Amino acid sequence: MKALDDIIQFIKDHDRFVITSHARPDGDAIGSELGLALMLEKLGKTAHIFNADPHPRPYQSLPGIERIQVTHKVEGNYDGLFLLECNDLQRSNLQGLDQYFVINIDHHPKTEPFGDLNWLDDSAAAVGEMIYELAQPLQVQLTPEIATNLYVAIFTDTGSFQYSNTRAKTFLITGDLVNHGASPSAISQAVYMTRPYARLQILGMLLNTLQIHSSKIASITLTQEMLEKTGASANEMEGIVDYPLSMEGIDLAAFFREEAQGRYRVSLRSKNHYDVSTVAAHFGGGGHKNAAGLAVEGSFQEVVEKVVSELEKLVDANYEPPLEVAGQTSKPLTK
Known about the structure:
This protein is of the alpha/beta class. Helix content is about 35%, strand content about 20%. The chain has helices at about 1-15, 25-40, 125-140, 145-155, 170-180, 185-190, 195-205, 225-230, 240-245, 275-280, 300-315, and strands at about 15-20, 45-50, 70, 80-85, 100-105, 115-120, 210, 215-220, 250-260, 265-270, 285, 290-295, 325, 330. Strands 3-2-1-4-5-6 form a 6-stranded parallel beta sheet. Strand 13 and strand 14 (about 330) form a beta hairpin. Helix 2 (about 25-40) packs parallel to helix 3 (about 125-140) and helix 4 (about 145-155) runs antiparallel to helix 5. The longest helix has 18 residues, at about 300-315. It is globular, with a radius of gyration of 20 Å. The N and C termini lie far apart (about 40 Å). The relative contact order is 0.10.
């Protein structure tokens, strides 16, 4: 693959790198950043990580997490910038990136090749898989620290291997990461069983906002007032949208999060064949088939009506095909 070969050669020919990902970083962003930085350092390179926002609490025990610097602007003398999981420079919410040679690595299906070097693979379950693929051609021996970070990247971006982006190769890669020191039980506990008390408080409030919009669509809403009342942080909300999606019969879920007066960020999730990235794209957002996001302005009622209307169109435009299991066709498990 020429894109991968070009990146390998660029790494071999240069010494100083800066690494970043999208604003409000998730497990794939953070795990991939740390895994890549540790790999570069194994090669004797210098690698600095900058993010616009702090990491969520579940990732505080990741090896090397202390090396991530939170800032609004990147400065310094670097040979190249690794931009992970972003569809453009602005997605990072960092200033100063346009001065660097950009290496764009992403697995989102609609990302354009905007960098100086572009490695785009929408078949990859996570950018963490792509960083893993750098190790062998770079002759980097995976350490337990690298393996743990890349496992977290893949584990979280597949929804604990629940999303449709999970494939046989995903298990081959994560199996190898386990062989190199990643602990599935320790990672699962760190990611899902270290929630702060404030998150559980706010979860109770969120479930009280649950709305069923149709036989297949449900939503919950987070307001600034809820955050102020509980002291919870907005970046601790990862995975919340899965609660309405977990209901029997619900195939599409929306999590409306008030960012400021008249502006909402919306996380979308889906089961089965429903592609919520098309709904996100309608509002200028993006993501994957079963997990996407967008930002929209208006009053709360207007925002809900706009987004739910598009979700309803998605339901109307799609029939529910039979599931294919092990080469055989069967009826859907639920209606």
